[in-house]
Amino acid sequence: MALNLLLLSLDYPPNDGGISEMAGDITRTLTSKGCLTRVVTFSANDNTGSARPKADYLEISKHKGLRDLQLMYAVNQVGRDTRILATKWNPEATLAMLAGARRVSILVHGMELIENNGQPLRNWLRRLVLERAHQVICNSKFCEKLVRKIAPKAQTTVLNPSINIERFKASYEKTEIRKKLGLPLGKKILLTVSRLVENKGHETVLRAISSLNTQQRSKLLYVVIGKGYMLEQLKVLTKQLKIIDQVKFVGFIKDDDLPFWYQASDLFVLTSTGIEGFGIAFIEAQAAGLAVIGTRCGGIPDAVCEGEGGWLIDEKDTLALASHLKKLLAEPEVIEEQGRLGLARMKREFSLDNYTKRLLELI
């Protein structure tokens, strides 16, 4: 039987994170449909993180020189005209093209498209690879604009990411999940899942909470999941704003455990600034039935449809966010209705079946 697809992904389960999870979901869905898929990735040398789906794997070394040779050999073995999907432009797509592959499609996500100041050779290489790709598949309209700016001759298409919606379906009552996670039963829980870096906008959320009156704050808990260099600065700000009792920094949570945290919460918020390619956490939250609040930043408007699952606010607009938090406390039924609408939209527009069907048409 002829190989249908060669998937090149060095960010792959058991790694945690959006790209890894997407690559695993693509493999799982395609193989379930009888599409013969071979995956070239690093060896899974531990049992932590997400489980790998069943597939035909070629595991390569993590040592750069040997890695490059093994990946190029894998491409050479399947033939130059085999359909290849690279989850990043570099090194996956670059090496495939160096090996002579003629039909390489690339998934782009956002941050890898930002200009590398002081690295003109890398910028040139990126433009060359993107323009030689069979298809550059952009996760948002914003990402497509970035690609067209840096690689004007690239063949681009927007295909919003998808997730396994069933994975986020509530399996227990909310009170039971909260007890399991050690979360209070009598408070409204606000949730952010992201790296703790400056452009994710945690400060906006903290300042919005601090603007509420004492009674309102006492009814809220802000749960922050993720790790990053901003952790200590955010803890200091929490103390300065005198909202220590309203904020819980949880740290890193494995992908397999994230659905429980979404299901335990009442509202998801991510107030990014500057660059945000899409925001996979928005569709995870909506798949769990949560209303979401995002900013008019980057590709977030592709993930958040205002009035059909949540709301969009301007960057750093603490007053607008505070208004939504007051609504969560005073009119929770409005928030819950947006959660239901968002879940319906996820099922309609973000199913893995639709995504993989369109993906195969493109590549």
Relevant terms:
Rossmann fold; alpha/beta; single chain; seven-stranded parallel sheet; 363 residues
Could you write a compact summary of the structure shown?
The chain is of the alpha/beta class and 363 residues long. It has helices at 18-32, 64-78, 89-98, 120-132, 141-150, 174-181, 202-210, 214-218, 231-240, 258-263, 280-287, 300-303, 318-330, 332-349, 352-362, and strands spanning 5-8, 37-42, 56-60, 84-86, 104-108, 135-138, 156-158, 188-193, 220-225, 247-251, 267-270, 291-295, 310-313. Helix 2 packs across helix 3 and helix 7 packs across helix 13.
Give a description of the structure.
The model has no long low-confidence stretch (mean pLDDT 94). Helix 2 crosses helix 3 and helix 7 crosses helix 13. By secondary structure, the protein is of the alpha/beta class. The radius of gyration is 21 Å and the shape is globular. Helix content is 43%, strand content 17%. The two termini are 19 Å apart. It has helices spanning 18-32, 64-78, 89-98, 120-132, 141-150, 174-181, 202-210, 214-218, 231-240, 258-263, 280-287, 300-303, 318-330, 332-349, 352-362; strands at 5-8, 37-42, 56-60, 84-86, 104-108, 135-138, 156-158, 188-193, 220-225, 247-251, 267-270, 291-295, 310-313. The chain folds into 2 domains: 5-159, Glycogen Phosphorylase B (Rossmann fold, 3-Layer(aba) Sandwich), CATH 3.40.50; 165-349, Glycogen Phosphorylase B (Rossmann fold). The strands form 2 sheets. It has a 7-stranded parallel beta sheet with strand order 3-2-1-4-5-6-7, sandwiched between helices. A 6-stranded parallel beta sheet has the order 10-9-8-11-12-13, sandwiched between helices.
